[in-house]
Amino acid sequence: MVKNILVTGAAGRIGACLADGLPEYGHTLRLLDKVAIDRAGHEVVVCDVTDAKALEGAMDGVTAVVHLAGIPSTSASFERLLTANIEGTYRVFEAARLAGVERVVYASSNHAAGFTPRQESAPAGTPVAPDSHYGVSKAYGEALGRFYSDRYGMRVASLRIGSFRDRPKSPRELSTWISHGDMVRLTHACLTSPDLTYAAVWGVSANTRSWWDPAAGLALGYEPRDDAEAYAEGMPELDPADPEYAYAGGRVVEL
Ligand code: 15L
What we know:
The protein is of the alpha/beta class. The protein contains eight helices and nine strands.
């Protein structure tokens, strides 16, 4: 069982969800963000993920990292992504390697493959086809994870996260939604699976209308419990020609 986990970008929505949910699985968390986090019961580190020296200290005693820090916006400019997503992700992997951390769970995004035409059940290993500079930055993080796994034997999971919400808010999200509970279950599986070497895994709930093959997650012990179908009533029908539904990344392909 993994015990000491560094969560970067912990002030964000997914960070808050994991800070609530992972302790139930026996994990002890160190929450890192560039803004102060007021959360009782967790150790907190305030630093930027581009600060190599500060990261060195933050990795002390850590057995796994959940790397969430970065700009989450699909319309972010290259300049902003360069620092936060490209340099920051490199600094985190490198600090983890230098500290002997054995496992990294990396928050990638469906937008790393967002230009993939929508299909019934796209495999988790669907080739990179970014739909935005944001998607490109996530593809870079996946490549970095694969490199650290192949070169240094780090166990790395790249989560191609769909739509992380309380509940699905649009017809697309009936396919792409991941619930809070499933986000915790997926992360826990990736933090503990003895079978993980490198894997790209769709971050999605057990949605009846999912576009993504759950096999890679299941192989690591992820057992999603939620289904967006419970919220389908009253949602408009999908128009298959609308880019929102024609591509994995939805309307982002047009931004
Ligand atoms: C993401 O990766 C984004 O961070 C989020 O803002 C949404 O666009 C989400 O994907 C999605 O595809 O719904």
